[in-house]
Amino acid sequence: LREESSRAISSILVTALEACRQGDVELIENLGLSLETMHKLDQLKADQISNISGNYMRDQTFMDVFIFNSEKMAKIIEIAAEETKQFELVDEYLRRGACKKMMNDLFGMRSTQIANSKKFLGIPTVKGRITVTTSGEQRQVYDAWLAAIKTPDYRERLLLVSTETGLMLSKIYREVLIIEEIQNQSNKRICA
Q1: What is the pLDDT of residues 14-61, one digit of tens each?
Q2: What is the DSSP string of the chain?
Q3: What pTM, to 2 d.p., does this model score?
């Protein structure tokens, strides 16, 4: 019964989403869901919507099926949307040449996870060390890093610098670590 109920919840969500796309918000209002939640749901894939329904039904009893908990559903959708954003960010980092150390530091990924993700995305594995950054590239990274100072998310900021400079993320990461080390040393001198 739980599996059938999960499919019914998936069907309700997809129907509500389709109604929203057509400008009819009556169903989502009746369900107690917000337009913001529906925007997040709209960015998810079908299997993720199915997983959301399964998570929603995981701890429900038979009679709970007839009571729709909009707060619980909104929270589950929010978590799934954040996970999707994280997966997309990881994929973009790998496409832009992030090294293993960077992926481990920023996403906690192990070598096998990185290798499997690259294989799935069709990204060839580069052997050996990355080339030394030229003084021109160092200047580009420094300037772009300073220009992106208002970007609050560290990972998004690195990606922005990569977009601006056209350089591999592994080179950018190495240079940013050096910039931060220099800043930390000068901050220690000022405070001492």
Answers
A1: 998 888 887 788 888 888 888 889 889 888 888 888 888 888 888 776
A2: -HHHHHHHHHHHHHHHHHHHHTT--HHHHHHT--HHHHHHHHTS-HHHHHHHHHHHHTT--TGGGGS--HHHHHHHHHHHHHHHHHHHHHHHHHHTT--HHHHHHHH---HHHHHHHHHHHTPPPPPSPPPPPPHHHHHHHHHHHHHTTT---HHHHHHHHHHHH---HHHHHHHHHHHHHHHHHHHHHHH-
A3: 0.63
